[in-house]
Amino acid sequence: MRLENIAIDAVNPVRVADFWEAALGTERLTTALDLIETRLSIPGGPWLDICIQEVPTPPTEPLRLHLDLLGGADQADVVDRLLTLGARHLDIGQGEVPWVVLADVEGTPFCVMEDRAAYAGTGPIAALPLDSADPERDADFWSWLTGWVDVDGVAPRTLRHPSLRGPLLELCPEPEAKGAGKNRIHLDVRPEAGDDPEAVIAGIVERGGSELGHEWGDLPWRVFVDPSGNEFCVLAQEGTL
Known about the structure:
globular, eight-stranded mixed beta sheet
């Protein structure tokens, strides 16, 4: 299995994709009115596709997964550049913290982080903090699902691609239980050649995940939730498209 996509819901995918592509320095793969894909390649590590998909109305569910961008010693310059791209400062009650909270062009929050040793080699996305009702349980789930491994970090459990390059996946104690609404940012995984897709589905259920019933029409992927209710998609197996 491979962690392949960071999917972001947007009312105007073109506008949002243009922002994130400029912010992250990614390479455009596909362009359609309702779905845009742009690739983040990490030297010596994985690649991740940022998928901006159209939704009819602005999301209202509190974020359970967000992007922490690399700032470090250049944090102020990074913030200034993002502001020129259309970001804005955002107060979510963070108080006095060493990171800077911004909103993208549709108001989705993200952070620009201070210098941390754990961010060496991450690329422009330092971390992907994910809310969890049980970080130990959910880290085991996501490690099995993606093949990512434990590394040191500030969260109760932190995972990273086995190359030890690219962003951190941080399992963070949730401030509140997952609501009924869909999160505006989620992750997608893809079975690789040699994987048994049905065994993957069975393993998801055995480890506390479940398939999500939805009213989004026929999709070329299957939608699941992790043990804490965070949505993710299982894409078609590599080589079957």
